[in-house]
Amino acid sequence: MKHHAKGAFDVKLQPLEAYNKSEGAGLGRMSIDKQFHGDLDASSQGEMLYAGNSKDTGGYVAVERVTGTLQGRRGGFSLQHNATRTPGEAHLNIIVVPGSGTDELAGLSGTLKIIIAEGGKHYYEFEYELAG
What we know:
Strand order of the largest sheet: 6-5-4-3-2-1-8-7
Distance between the termini: 10 Å
Low-confidence stretches: none
Strand content: over 45%
Radius of gyration: 16 Å
Order of helices and strands: EEEEEEEE
Number of helices: 0
Helix content: under 10%
């Protein structure tokens, strides 16, 4: 049975030392710290790797570990991101890493959508299932 959760979240990204520092590589790394509100009352920490030389084009991959409660169920799970952007078009895919759910979130699967409202406020919509 599919469940739906939604709410807002705050995110803090901090630059980390890049492995490839070659001029023109356009590669970087960031730490991710989030606080989710609403149906998902949780915090997360993770890392992002990104590539691109402008604000209009590029891509990133990231993994973050989420810990807290999802509609009253306590536990943790990991999210895996992959995204690309070209002028006027963005693709973002965020899934629950299979087998990463713990405690009352064991068997969790699903996809998370991020919405960035005008003014920069971040929201999520999470469609998920729990095995068992």
